[in-house]
From TrEMBL:
Function: Involved in protein export. Acts as a chaperone by maintaining the newly synthesized protein in an open conformation. Functions as a peptidyl-prolyl cis-trans isomerase.
Protein keywords: Chaperone, Isomerase, Rotamase
Catalysed transformations (reactions): [protein]-peptidylproline (omega=180) = [protein]-peptidylproline (omega=0)
Protein family per UniProt: Belongs to the FKBP-type PPIase family. Tig subfamily.
Domain Trigger factor ribosome-binding bacterial per the UniProt entry, residue ranges: 41-162
PANTHER family tied to this protein: OS09G0515400 PROTEIN, TRIGGER FACTOR CHAPERONE AND PEPTIDYL-PROLYL CIS/TRANS ISOMERASE
EC number: 5.2.1.8
Protein name: peptidylprolyl isomerase
Taxonomic placement: Eukaryota, Viridiplantae, Streptophyta, Embryophyta, Tracheophyta
One GO molecular-function entry: ribosome binding
An example Gene Ontology biological process: protein transport
Amino acid sequence: MILIHFEMSISFYREHINCHPTAAVSDAQTSSANFEEFSVSVADINDVRELKISIEVSGNKTQKIFDDVFEKMVAAAQPIPGFRRVKGGKTPDIPKDILLEVLGPFNVYRKVIKQIINSTIGEYVEKVRLVVSNDLRVEQSFEDLEASFEAGEKFSFDAVIQLEK
């Protein structure tokens, strides 16, 4: 098991969330919670106030995030050789597989997976009203996450969130 450290995730959401003074740890100990586009199973809260959770994200949410991230990357990319920009600076209709190859599948999937993790954990923290530190660990390696990721399909990962006192 390789741990990935995504520090940027929760800090982004804490700035925009009105976390309530302290949510009792027992509030988070419900065995599972279903939300509109993802579900969370709480595995454990240990002595150092780490909340271990398993998250399953719906295919609909993975597709939306993939499309959003991919569109932003395409818009920010240099012109694609062999394709002219049309009036207004828009890119012509280039097949997605060519764009993916030009942008680099690793780069695209890395950003998409980070966005899925960040948005899902942030939304969970907000809805359950947890007060957390900026530390978030994902227990799978990026290679394992990438191998299991398919846009439009369910996506699962395990994370450890540090609860604040």
